[in-house]
Design goal:
358 residues; alpha+beta; Alpha-Beta Plaits; eight-stranded mixed sheet; three-stranded antiparallel sheet; 9 helices; flat
């Protein structure tokens, strides 16, 4: 059970923030308190609901032991109803109190790369990117392509995009890993089913204060962009390659005709990769606590299979199988998979918390 003192403290904290909002005048204080108020309100509401149920249970218990037989019987009946409701309310509050990933509210850098399978893998990478693009649209997020390397027969060898919005990482973070497709490729003349793969990386976009990049740690190379013939090839040295010397990370951008814009995009991606490296290091230190949760997000881990002949999508981490592949790969039903992953993650974390408490 959640201690009464903790419930009272949650309600008191919310009341304090709400009172402070009416007295602050500085813009940054208003923004900070508004954000905290929005985060605390559902928790405080649930805490009040649980506190109310507990008070009623105490009152009903006293009535159930009174001398009035009819009143006592009614009280016992109501008490049983509240006893049946209380555990679900308490669990909902416990879920709300689970430690949150500080990156959950961030926008992300999405990277999709063709894996094994040649041209078919590139086509599949294109399908995956469009799936995420549609899902983002349904969530009200903004997608900006940062870099794309198109394949000869369509799709992408690799594509990077910024998905901006509130809470993008919270919903997208379990998409990182190896995605496998089983289907008859458009290039197949014998009607045989091929297996191909693409890798997805979802990097939370850091703020400037999260990752400080020193100019002395960078080697910046400027060169002329290369690509298909005609007007798409720049005639000036505008492509940028940035090497982060301490880690050896290399980021290259050439999509823009402006050297300044290419450098800015490259730094955005570099900052996200450095932040991801730091998060991975911290995650490994907490590996024991995370044991048994929904995957590790490791991009070497095969997480999902899209089987077109059977119209089947299987997420291997939670043994979820859906038979609406067309809707999932379009992005319209991807939310079914995402929501199931988030629900399993919350359940696993709650179970770990309860085991630790026991």
């Amino acid at each position: 059970m959640i201690p009464t003192e903790k419930i009272d403290a949650l309600i008191a904290r919310f009341d304090k923030v709400e009172a402070a909002m009416s007295s602050v005048t500085r813009g940054e204080d208003i923004v900070r308190l508004s954000k905290e108020h929005g985060e605390l309100k559902p928790v405080a509401d649930k805490a009040r609901e649980l506190a109310s149920i507990r008070r009623q249970m105490i009152e009903l218990k006293d009535l159930s032991e009174s001398g009035d037989a009819e009143m006592a019987a009614m009280a016992r009946e109501e008490l049983q109803e509240l006893k049946a409701r209380a555990p679900a309310i308490e669990q909902e509050l416990q879920l709300m109190l689970l430690p949150k990933d500080k990156a959950d509210g961030r926008s992300v850098i999405l990277e999709v790369r063709a894996g094994t399978g040649g041209d078919e893998a590139a086509l599949f990478a294109g399908d995956l990117f469009r799936m995420y693009q549609r899902y983002a649209q349904l969530q009200g997020w903004k997608v900006e392509v940062l870099s794309a390397s198109e394949a000869d027969l369509g799709g992408f060898k690799e594509i990077q995009a910024n998905i901006a919005g509130e809470g993008v990482f919270a919903k997208m973070k379990f998409e990182g890993g190896v995605h496998r497709v089983q289907r008859v490729p458009a290039t197949e003349t014998q009607g045989r089913i091929h297996t191909s793969a693409a890798t997805v990386a979802v990097l939370p976009e850091p703020e400037e204060v999260d990752i400080v990049i020193n100019d002395a740690d960078l080697r910046v190379d400027i060169f002329r962009a290369s690509g298909p013939g005609g007007q798409s090839v720049n005639t000036t040295d505008s492509a940028v390659r940035i090497t982060h010397l301490p880690t050896g990370l290399v980021v290259q951008q050439q999509d823009e005709k402006s050297q300044h814009k290419n450098r800015a995009k490259a730094l955005k991606i570099l900052r996200a990769r450095l932040y991801d490296m730091e998060r991975e290091r911290a995650e490994k230190e907490r590996a024991a606590a995370r044991k048994g949760m929904v995957g590790s997000g490791d991009r070497s881990e095969r997480i999902r299979t899209y089987n077109f002949p059977q119209s089947r999508v299987t997420d291997h981490r939670i043994n979820l199988t859906l038979y609406n592949l067309d809707q999932v790969i379009r992005g319209d039903a991807l939310g079914e998979v995402v929501d199931a992953l988030l629900a399993q993650d919350r359940a696993d974390r709650l179970s770990a918390l309860q085991n630790d408490a026991a």
